[in-house]
Amino acid sequence: MDISIVVPSYNEDESLPHLAEWIDRVMKEHGFTYEVIIVDDGSKDKTWQVTEKLHADNPCYRGVKFRRNYGKSAALNTGFAAAQGDVVITMDADLQDSPDEIPELFHMIKDESYDLVSGWKKKRYDSKLAKNIPSKFFNWTTRRMSGIHLHDFNCGLKAYRRDVVKSIEVYGEMHRFIPVIAKWAGFGKIGEKVVQHRKREFGVTKFGMSRFINGYLDLMSIMFMSKFGKQPMHFFGAVGTVSGLFGFVSLLVVIILRLSGRIALTKSVWFYLSMLFLVLGVMLFLAGFIGELVCRNSTTRNQYLIEKEL
Description:
The protein is of the alpha/beta class and 310 residues long. The protein has helices at residues 15-30, 47-57, 72-82, 102-110, 128-146, 162-167, 178-184, 210-228, 233-259, 269-296; strands at residues 3-9, 34-40, 61-65, 87-90, 116-120, 158-161, 190-194.
């Protein structure tokens, strides 16, 4: 099969029939073999009934229905697990992503050997105050921290080589950072394509301003896990050692000054700061030690992604 299209959907019963008609036309024009996996993320409208009808009319359409709303990351992860195509395309169900972009995304993966191609909505129709300006700042920060030079990390329109989606796990609200997760997993050829951004025709946006706050917290989690996930002592031990040494040396200096009669021990702020850094250093070192024990007893401690094997 050439293409799997994963479509996370939440209250999109009006958009889905139009999106399906558009996808079918593009697939037939280019002769692709394909499947469309619609993941109903606990919708309250008739999204699932629409999905059932699409499946009845065309067996290329498959559906997964969540009992409740788990979020876009859960929908994508479930779709990735079910995908069978050589190239996996993700797109939103709200008609703001154009299926006409799919053929070129497909060829960038197959012919130019990209692992992942992310869409870039260079011209947007969102509110500048609510989405546009915060998105630019968010993308700039992510570029600086991850070293991946994409303009739009959060674009829902992306293309993946099948190996990529089968090797990564997306949870929480990590869907914004799939390129970062893919790079961490060893898929380094990540490209970008300018794509059309269309105005929403039906319904309302499902994302609020809280996604930017959560996004930064998720980014910090990913950056930490990518560097220290299997060796937490390298982080906590290093910081704890520096803090402990600083506290010990400071405390030693304070004691010497006290013995020479230059300061009163209990009235010196340096005494309390020295004790604070010393205790903090010991606690951080112990946190790293406990983290190492957890990692060594984890069932995934020796699970590594293997690209080829003879």
